[in-house]
Structures are given as C-alpha cells and as structure tokens.
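TEACHING EXERCISE
Course module: macromolecular assemblies
Task: Read the component lines below, then compare them to the predicted structure of the full complex.
Student: A.B.
Group: 4
Components provided:
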Amino acid sequence: MSDPRLVIVGSIGIDHIETPTEKRPNLLGGSVSYACAAASFHHPPGMVGVVGSDFPEEFLELYRSFDVDLQGLQHAEGQTFSWTGVYAENMDNRETLETVLGVFESFEPTLPESYKSAPFVFLGNMHPGLQLHVLDQISAPKFVLADTMDLWINITRDDLEKVIQRVDMLTLNESEARLLTGTQHLIDAATSLLDLGPDHVLIKKGENGSMLFGKEGTYIQPAVPLANVTDPTGAGDSFAGALMGYLTQQDRCDHAAIRRAMVNGSVVASFGVEAFSLEGLQGLTQEQIQTRTDNLLAMMRVED
Amino acid sequence: MSDPRLVIVGSIGIDHIETPTEKRPNLLGGSVSYACAAASFHHPPGMVGVVGSDFPEEFLELYRSFDVDLQGLQHAEGQTFSWTGVYAENMDNRETLETVLGVFESFEPTLPESYKSAPFVFLGNMHPGLQLHVLDQISAPKFVLADTMDLWINITRDDLEKVIQRVDMLTLNESEARLLTGTQHLIDAATSLLDLGPDHVLIKKGENGSMLFGKEGTYIQPAVPLANVTDPTGAGDSFAGALMGYLTQQDRCDHAAIRRAMVNGSVVASFGVEAFSLEGLQGLTQEQIQTRTDNLLAMMRVED
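Instructor-supplied answer key:
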C-alpha cells in the first residue's frame, strides 16, 4: 500500500445512542471513524487512533471495507473509549449520559513513518496537546484542518490557541465559535478566529449548513434538506472528512476548491445522518453521491 | 398616478421597541409599512391599511418618500394599532409586552377601484378573514402571496386554510410551518402545505435564510451575513415586500424569477434590520442594493 496522502487523527469510540424513536447500543463511533469513512469516497485516508482489547474485529473489517489504511491504528490493553448519549425530540439537543475514556486517556498519537510526509492532515476533535503532537511529526503539510469542542475551549485554551496558530483551517460549531471568542456575532467571531492565524475558519451550523470565512471571502454552504434524520452523531466529522478527502483527491487547497469540498462534505454527511453509526455510509455508491450533489447544487442555483 | 400593479395589505402600527442596547418608542411599524417600503426599490406599491387619528403626518410623508400609493390607506377615528416588544440578548427571541388593536380592530380592507385590477398582491399578516375579503375584490390576480402567524393558526385555522387554497404562495416562519402542519420535519411540513393548494411555500428561517418549496424544486436562500443587527422587527415583511416588488418589476412569477426575487428580498431585508423602523431603508440607493446583491451572490457561488 502506498503512503497515505491524507492522515486523519481523532477518537474511536463505542457509542450507545438513544433517539426519540430508537435505542442502539454498541455502535462504532468516534470522530476518526466518521471522518475516515466519509473521506474514503474521495480518497482513502490513513487513520490514527487507539482501540482497546474489547474492540470488535468486525469494526476493523468495517474500516477496511472503506479502504482505510490502518497502519496508524494503535491497539492498547483496556477498554475502548465509549460515549452514551440521548437525543431530544427535535434532534437538535443531545445529552451525554456517560463518557468512559478508557485507552483514549493515555493515547499518544505516534505516526508511522509512512504517514509523516502526508500533505493533507485532519486533526479531529481531541485534546489540543495531542493535536500539537501530531503536527510536530508531519514534515511538510500542505493543508491542515483542525476541529475542536467546548471542553477544550474551557479547560485548555492555551494549547488550543497554539493549534489554531499552526493550522490552515479551523472548524467548530456556532456556539463553540461564540464561546471561544466571547462574541455573539458570528462574523465578529470568525474575524477574531482568523486573527489567531488560520487562513480559513469553517463554522458549522448543523441543519442550517456551514459558513467559510477567510481573506478570499465568505461562502455560505446550505445543508442538504432531509426528511429523515435518524442519528446526527458524527455529522460534523463526516462533513470535515469528506471535505478533506475531496481536497486530497483534487490536490488543491485554494478557496474555490474548499467551496466545492464543502458541497461534497454536506452531501456525504447527509447520507451519514440518515442512519446510525456508519450505516448510512456503508454501501454508498459514487452514483448516489453524484445524484445528491447535483440535487444540492440545483437547490443553490440562481440566475445572476 | 397610474393604477398600482402591486397591492400590499396589512397592519400599520406604532411600535415601541426595546433591544439589549436601546429603547425606542413611537416608531413606524406594521407589516404593510415594511413591505411597501421594501417593495418600492423595485416597484412602487399601493398600500391598503388603516391609521388612527393619532397617526403622525411625518409618517405619511415617509410613505410618500418611498413612492407608496396611499389611495388605499384608510383614516379612522381612534388610536392607531400599536405594538410594544422587547428583544432578548441574542435578538432571536422577542416578547410582546403590549398590543393595542385600536382602529385595526374594525378594519375592513376595502380596495379603491384602481387597485382591483392589480396583477400582484401581497396579503400581509392579518386576520385571514380580512385576507379573504381582499382576495374577493381583486378581479384577476396573476400572483398572490400571503403571510400569516401563529395567532391565526391557533384561533382561525379554517379561514386560514381558505386563504392558503386561494393564493399562489404562502410564506411563514419555520415554527409556524411546524405548528400549522403538526410535523417537526420541515420538508414534510412544506409538502403538507403544498397539498393545501399553493404552488409555492416559502419558509423563513431568520438569520438562517429561507427555503422555497414547490413542484419545480426546492431552493435554499441564505440570508446576508450581518455583523450588526439593530432591530429584526419587520425583517420578514421587508423580505416579502422586496420579493413582490421584484416580481412586479419583472412581470414574472415563474420559479426562476422567484429564486432571484428571494435574493433581492434577502438583500433589502438585511438593510432593514441594521436600523430601527424604516430607518435602514430610508435613503438606501440602488447602487448600495446592487453592491450587496453582488456580494451575496458571490457568497453563494460554487464551481460546478
């Protein structure tokens, strides 16, 4: 297998999820699972993460079915990271019932040699100290995207700011952007974040799409309107993973390419939330992706 | 003055508004005020509404400054309709402190002869019985848009459904669409509303833009991203007014024209919310509108 040109780092988890209509235990989850599966439709990624001794062989098979390179996957003694959550009626709000860090607590993302020259890197949501550790191992990255969450904004802001300074693009959701910058206004928040260093800031707004900010302008990406949302878990990770997969495939990281990558991210993520875990992405064909992409573009088009 | 080709009916109010940063009493408000001012940038409308004996002459002057035809404006003895409201910190939620119906309570929207042949009609938010009364007087409308609100959905659903059956387009906000159809999912809600009769359903989502549903497809219109929102009152009315002004100017009501009209609606409404009352629309130039339209289109554009 050739060296992966896209490396994705993040959490691997066993999720126990309850929605208003269904209860599903023991699902494959975690940021890197969603991101790698989603990226694979454009370019097969190399995965960096850790699983415990309880991690089912069938989940490894699932990764392989998406052509994910597993050289960077670590196997440790102990329990795999686990998340238990419940979604409220409108699917917008979720409550965490339990988080078990397990082997993720002592995770050190050491990259295989073959990963260190990767031009495209997605630092999934995890402790910013770990994200920095990954960055230190990449020799000459062309485009690095980092995700984060409210927890790191609250408890380890210094490390997070160091990450933000060193990446090409930061992605986070609307409320996190407000929390990190202390401003209600999204445009002001994006401007503050750009001032920290990255060329691009990508703010996720769930079913209301996402917005790209940068010196080459602002872009507004609508989400695919869906009649059926089964499980929104991992939507942001799938979105970012597909976006990075597209950029890697195109070997581009210019503003126009990022816009187009966001279309692809929205499309792939929309399939993901129509089922639990990776089930919405399993067996998905290029033709299905293309059809939905054409439909989304048609919904965005206007006479000039 | 020639017969108005666009007739707009609705409420005229004196608003007392408090935002997190400012308190402004005695502002010109009401759906027809915002809608007529916004429409005027594309086509001067004829206004149908009622004011009381306390209505300031300067507000009439303001209407005239927007080239609004006032033949349909009724003057009645008593107090003008009045609304007092407070916006919460995030400007998303507002609370009504007081509503005084005044002369609006016995309002009968009788149209001047010169209005009855208007091809374009916007039935602003008011009692559906009054909206039906207006429809009965229009001889051969080409395109009728109706707005509504939760109050009418709750207390006079039968009349509202009659209105919906008779118009070409229904507009309402996200939560109202859910309330009226009893479904959480926006696509299902839109489908149910289309089943009631109109060719188009336009769902407003505030700062998250709007969506057009119809048999010719779905269109997603982003709102203009704004750093400064001073007063969101009337945003939906300005949006709909500018949309109707554009269609009247173009003398079109096909799907492609409606998409383009939504761009214009978003742009004009964005100026409106940057100041209180009609202040954001006063003195606004075609050049300013064009520049912001170009900017918005650039934020929506993606390589195919």
